[in-house]
Design brief:
The protein is α+β, with helices and mostly antiparallel strands. It has a single domain, classed as Alpha-D-Glucose-1,6-Bisphosphate, Chain A, domain 4 (2-Layer Sandwich). It has 4 helices and 9 strands, in the order ββααβββββββαα. A hairpin with a 2-residue loop joins strand 8 and strand 9. About 3% of the residues have low confidence.
């Protein structure tokens, strides 16, 4: 199943300039939106793609409901990595998922981003919004994160999203 990607600049349309514009990635995926939504909502499917290729993802807990928490660890080959948690703020199957994302300690308690090893400019919490629209069996998925795209590119978060979304497409169930 194929996919195409884009990220719009928004320049000249009253949107924030490049330095402040938040992350926004759009993918067109040749699969029904129910299938693409399930890639985000089923922990076994999510575990197949939600980390860059070089990393390992450990699913600690996953409670997919509004107010539910998802805890995970992403480990890098060099021994680095991060412990994160997400709290699901909105779920409208199969249209939209919104979650806040932040760093945690080993007990799952919130810690500030810098203590979690992030760049000093990285916000302590970000909100990730994923929307799914379908037309004739093809899904347009848009991911937005409330962090400046320029910062996400500088820290590697943006290319990590791109790679993870490539992995999502590769992990889709075959027809």
């Amino acid at each position: 199943m194929g996919a195409s990607a884009s990220s719009g600049s928004g320049a000249g349309r009253g949107e924030p300039d490049a330095a402040r514009r938040p992350v926004r990635i759009t993918r067109t995926i040749e699969a029904p939106r129910e299938v693409v939504f399930r890639m985000w909502s089923d922990p076994d499917l999510l575990a197949r793609w939600y980390a860059p290729r070089r990393c390992q993802l450990e699913m600690i807990s996953f409670d997919f409901r509004v107010g539910g928490t998802w805890r995970h660890r992403i480990s890098e080959p060099n021994g680095g990595g991060c412990l994160c948690a997400a709290v699901f703020e909105e779920i409208r199957a199969p249209e939209r998922i919104v979650y806040s994302l932040f760093f945690t300690n080993e007990r799952g308690q919130f810690i500030d981003a810098r203590s979690g090893g992030a760049d000093p400019e990285w916000p302590d919490r970000t909100t990730v919004t994923v929307t799914f629209t379908e037309h004739a069996g093809t899904t347009t998925m848009t991911l937005e994160q409330t962090v400046p795209e320029s910062l996400a590119k500088r820290t590697g978060a943006y290319p990590s999203w791109l790679e993870m979304l490539d992995r999502l497409c590769e992990a889709l169930p075959q027809k």
